[in-house]
Amino acid sequence: MFEVVIGLEVHVQLNTKSKLFCSCPTSFNHKQNTNTCPTCLALPGALPVLNKEVLHKSIMLGTAIEATVNQTSYFDRKSYFYPDSPSAYQITQLYTPIVEHGKLQIDFEDATSKTIRINRAHIEADAGKNIHDGDISKVDLNRAGTPLLEIVSEPDMSSAEEAILYLKKLHSIIRYLDIGDANMQEGSFRVDVNVSIRPKGDEKLYTRVEIKNINSFKFIHKAIEVEVIRQSEAWEDGVYDDEICQETRLFDQVKQETRSMRGKEEAADYRYFPEPDLLKVVVTDEMLETYSKIPELPDAKKKRFIKEFSMSEYNAMVITATVEMANFFEEMMAEDGVSAKTAASLLTVELQGRLKGEQNVTNSPVNAKKLGFLAKRVDDKTISGKAAKDVLDYLMENDEDIDSVIEKLGLKQMTDSGAIESMCDEIISTNPEKVEQYQCGKEKLFGFFVGQVMKASKGSANPQVVNEILKNKLG
Ligand code: ADP
Ligand code: MG
Ligand code: ZN
Predict the structure, then answer these.
(1) Which of 34, 242, 396, 431 is the most exposed place for a label (fewest CB within 10 A)?
(2) Which CATH architecture fits 417-474?
(3) 343-361, pLDDT tens digit by residue?
(4) Model-level pTM?
């Protein structure tokens, strides 16, 4: 039997206003090659200057993963030629990165968890983009020099599931810290997956392959699965040494297979050396203190929600999965007299189920304050949970005051027991034979009476009150 060994390298684009070593804007959706300057175009004589915001965001990440922040770190030069890199080298941190020895906890469904060690996180500059357009290729350097934080795990994951849990946790932390938008489709959260297998119980690491540029969690999961099968089959067929070599592979989503892209370069191929154009990076005690202040992270928030709002573990997990959901929920709870149960269900089931296309909780037509007020109207029994769905349907299309919508749609719940009582009397007196059957033991008929009263009230009677009154009257 085999054991799977996975180590992940994640390139996170930091959402700073300007680039890593110059003051060009980082927004690269502008006209091609306009967000450039002599530094990021690597013109002779232009010198890089480190952007402090990059340092700040890197240290925030380091704090979040409980890592060591090196108060002295260095930049190194990694040489390679590619058309989208005008300098023919990349500035990165090889020997002493800004962040080292961190960890991240992943949680399984059965409530157990595992700690994944993080080897390092280092700062580096991104390249530009090659655009292939028919027979010609173009280069856009708007992205050249954009700051990346590369977060490298130890080979601690042993299944595709664990890898995905790790990535989702890291993704969520980056969004919580607001150090990057971590959009996988747009390439601001890029994952390289290193995979190898070994006989169970063996401590040594076997040859790994690196699968690059997979842009969704679903495809990463699949890529690992098919690669593990390929390696296991090679082993079982006795051709492991011929077929498995250290190389870079890509995942073909259509054929559902990994394919060799190029042989793996050795560090020596890059001719690394200390970057001569930059000073060592010094983080003073003062900077360290300021930069390591971070907001509440998903795990802590989840624990707090469970305690503070007496929520179920499941609801807390769903709601704290993104910082936007969590904030939305807390804003709902700020409304007086709202129960977590009503708020959670209106948010995670009803609102989420009604958001379409590009809509999400941050641009929802019904904002948190409003949905919180709707929850209040359920909890103070003005309307039923069912009526709340109708109100929400209406609010998704119309921006109106909730109480007037309740009025207008006639959804106000009848809680006046006198009125409900006379409806019950009416139903009982018009159905004497059913009453007799019920009293002779046909208990199923109770539902019939409730239904008739609800119908008579056009659904507005409080079902709980109806139940109580009928129980009394029918005996
Ligand atoms: P490089 O910088 O050349 O890509 P590293 O040694 O920094 O190589 O490792 C890169 C990633 O590969 C790390 O996430 C590490 O955990 C992972 N890794 C290293 N060896 C293995 C292996 N045998 N199987 C799976 N992952 C591995
Ligand atoms: Mg690598
Ligand atoms: Zn520039």
Answers:
(1) 242
(2) Orthogonal Bundle (1.10)
(3) 999 999 999 999 999 999 9
(4) 0.85
